[in-house]
Amino acid sequence: MFILFSRKQKLLVFFLPQLPAGNLQLTLYQYKTCPFCSKVRAFLDYHGLPYEIVEVNPIMRKEIKFSSYRKVPILLADAGSPLQLNDSSVIISAIKTYLISKRNSLEEIVSFYPPMKTVTEQGKEVLEYGNKYWLMLDEKETKRVYPVKEVRVEEMQWRKWADDWLVHLISPNVYRTPKEALASFDYIVREGKFGTVEGFFAKYLGAIAMFFISKRLKKRHHLRDDVREDLYEAVDKWVKAIGKNRLFMGGSQPNLADLAVYGVLRVMEGLEAFDDMMVHTKIQPWYQRMEEAIQRAAA
Amino acid sequence: MFILFSRKQKLLVFFLPQLPAGNLQLTLYQYKTCPFCSKVRAFLDYHGLPYEIVEVNPIMRKEIKFSSYRKVPILLADAGSPLQLNDSSVIISAIKTYLISKRNSLEEIVSFYPPMKTVTEQGKEVLEYGNKYWLMLDEKETKRVYPVKEVRVEEMQWRKWADDWLVHLISPNVYRTPKEALASFDYIVREGKFGTVEGFFAKYLGAIAMFFISKRLKKRHHLRDDVREDLYEAVDKWVKAIGKNRLFMGGSQPNLADLAVYGVLRVMEGLEAFDDMMVHTKIQPWYQRMEEAIQRAAA
């Protein structure tokens, strides 16, 4: 819920989407520490949408046995009839479209983001969702949501950047050294859903495995020897893109790119990589504004 | 131009896009035998849009020196001010949107398909265009163009299939044997823009090089040992998707998926792979209907 603090904020309330008065029941299947899940939570929280969380056990994953799509996040949405939404960016684009425009049912909106099988350069079959960074708005709605036209494309590009580039910097950074890998897994096991014995093994074996896997990821994504440098560079590039004349990329309020970048970076909170990032980049003022904006919205 | 032959076809004329009365000057930079260029020509011809062709010399490419985007096709469109459109599917989606809906300028429409830098799994930087299979229509236009709602997503999926899968079957098939490779290059040099000496060398060196490169492509895309089998399978899958109750995927008229598949397959005309495909698959009746539809439209 949005609370009015000042005269200035009274104006801002008009730009917030209408809240559907309890007519949208949401259940999020997630791993708490996964950046894609964190992105969805940041989005839902900021829009004041209540949702149930089902924490998925990452070893057995029996909580999502009902689904042929085997990744998290999955969002079950019930706006009359139950509907399964897959892929974090599809979830965000579809729900955002639904909040802005009541012309179509959520089911219809989701059908505008079709899964499309495709084959990567190396012949791996993958699922890609069409239009996934595009809100399905008519002209009037577009003018309302994007009074500055260029921001629509900018938002799209940075959302994709968050998914395709920024997320890949997380693992190499939080598993950089054996000590960091152990701290990360301690955090993952504490926050995630693990049995007691499972958790013990996951912590130590997971830390060892991810330490080595993260070296492979580092190589695959052509990161520098000191992966922090890539993280700092990415984060400062983001800050520079916002520039000095905007509080957020969305202007006076976060847009979907702000929420995506925040959601991804947030999973490092409490870890060495996060503290280093705060010290060595210019992200802090924006990051703090994001925290406040989400707290206000969820209050 | 569309010519009325019968009463039945009189009805169909309403579904054809309005032809802009000469207010859209188009110049296509192409290699004649490239499938992506052929796709664009099939689209422009079917829609009765006149255009100039600039055949690009594939060795020096000085005809597209003006452009920082270094691939063909490139379409220069002048609907008041000159505008460069890159990527065959963006060209097709943007021009099609423009033909249906006069709400936005072509420049605005093109901005809805933004280039987005992304990094592939192997760390290669590539340019991807957002929304590239999506027509930017409002509700009324959507209902007019897609009276059967499901066809919109179907069209999108098969257009992507043509770009991501079908095109990859062409090279391995037309350079399958040394003899076929030579015949293909004879055709490419004859149809393309080459100097005399250049053409001679291109033909023999090109044939040898592509014979070997096509083996690598075959491996990369996990094709079968006999690449014809993959071609036959793909083509029959397409025919099956249309089914028995439609002349085209678009119903009684080709849609953008029909034009894409036709455009890709057409580059094999006159080569052994094409004749084999006609004999060993069920494509012929549809292919012939496509030829006729385009001939009628361009007449």
TrEMBL record, chains A, B:
Q: Which UniProt keywords are present, listed alphabetically? A: Fatty acid biosynthesis, Fatty acid metabolism, Isomerase, Lipid biosynthesis, Lipid metabolism, Membrane, Prostaglandin biosynthesis, Prostaglandin metabolism, Transmembrane, Transmembrane helix
GO MF, one annotated term: prostaglandin-E synthase activity
- Entry's localization field: Endomembrane system
EC number of this enzyme: 5.3.99.3
Sequence ranges assigned to domain GST C-terminal in this UniProt record: 187-299
Question: PROSITE patterns from the entry?
Answer: GLUTAREDOXIN_1, GLUTAREDOXIN_2, GST_CTER
Gene Ontology biological process terms in this record: prostaglandin biosynthetic process
Q: List the GO cellular component terms.
A: endomembrane system; mitochondrion
**Record flagged with keyword Lipid biosynthesis:** yes
Taxonomy, superkingdom: Eukaryota
Task: Name the InterPro entries on file.
Answer: GLR_AS (IPR011767), Glutathione-S-Trfase_C-like (IPR010987), Glutathione-S-Trfase_C_sf (IPR036282), Glutathione_S-Trfase (IPR040079), Glutathione_S-Trfase_N (IPR004045), PGES2 (IPR034334), PGES2_C (IPR034335), Thioredoxin-like_sf (IPR036249)
Q: What is this enzyme's catalytic activity, as reactions?
A: prostaglandin H2 = (12S)-hydroxy-(5Z,8E,10E)-heptadecatrienoate + malonaldehyde; prostaglandin H2 = prostaglandin E2
Pathway per its UniProt entry is: Lipid metabolism; prostaglandin biosynthesis
Q: Does the keyword ATP-binding apply?
A: no
Q: How does it sit in the membrane?
A: Single-pass membrane protein
User: Main location per UniProt?
Assistant: membrane
PANTHER family associated with the record? MICROSOMAL PROSTAGLANDIN E SYNTHASE-2, PROSTAGLANDIN E SYNTHASE 2
In the record, the note on similarity to other proteins reads:
Belongs to the GST superfamily.
Quote the protein name from its UniProt record. Prostaglandin E synthase 2
